[in-house]
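A student in our group prepared the protein record below, which I am reviewing. Here is the record exactly as it was handed to me.
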Amino acid sequence: MSWQVLIAAVGLWFALEGILYAAAPETMRRMAAWLAALPLDAVRSGGIWSAILGLILFYCAVRFG
């Protein structure tokens, strides 16, 4: 894996998140409030599963792409 791929992936992540905040700021604010109201274990579990899925997708893209 080259550093260029990793930097491109992080750049894409920032771009997509920025588009979400620019296109629907009120929705993102409501989602943040909803997330803040969740129990910490639920947030942690969601974060772990999201990270696992992201790593699997990234690995597949680099390995088979």
In short: Residues 3-64 form one domain.
